[in-house]
Amino acid sequence: MRKKIVAGNWKMNTTVAEGVALAKAVAAKSAEVPANVGLIVAPPFTHLVSVAEALKGSKVELSAQNCADKAKGAYTGEVAADMLVSAGCQWTILGHSERRQYYGETDAKLVDKVRLALDNGLGVILCVGEMLEERKAGRHFAVVTEQTENVLFHFSAEDMAKIVIAYEPVWAIGTGETATAEQAEEIHACIRKVLEGKFGKEVADNTTILYGGSCKPSNAKELFAQPDIDGGLIGGASLKADDFIEIGKSF
Ligand code: PEP
To answer: What is d(CA 166, CA 94) in angstroms, rounded to the nearest whole number?
Structure first.
């Protein structure tokens, strides 16, 4: 059975001290979340070592928000996958729409990033999702299918065991506007079909697909009740420990 996961993307928020306090609050309440639900937090790079320490002894796992598309060397400002592992990460988010939009992240670059992350033992949360204009033009299924194929079709069925997909419609991120449960479910089901076509039914059935985009305690239950929605990638609401834990209890 595929794993249920709630992951918090803190983005560029909190100082180190604030982040450690948030991590401690999440860790302290994490036992309230059912044992079959995984919890992950993704603080900024600067916080990783301290947050790893704060999470020790809890079920909460640590993720980065990005990693470099190169292994090491003269790439000023970049952080490599093995550095993330050495800082205590088990995961990295890759391909978030903010990285695609503001930092020129392409599917081709993502192939290199996913490869390096997996080679170094990190799990990957790969984000896909359409822009508002693409949805308005009725291209949402095509866009999400392309993004999924362009990156994941370079990997094997075995690799897929370490990859989680997050469907995040860009128009729902940080806007307060959530996709309806039906809108989210139909895209999740589409992604699962794409995976089935390439990797077979077992891999498709075992892949965790998260929804992200203004997910909060008040709408998480309805979203997570959908057959192909296996949890959430949470932005704003992950900055409040109580809200994040409440979302973790929404299955
Ligand atoms: C995100 O950026 O991953 C996200 C889902 O943000 P928010 O929950 O704030 O919409």
So the answer is: 10
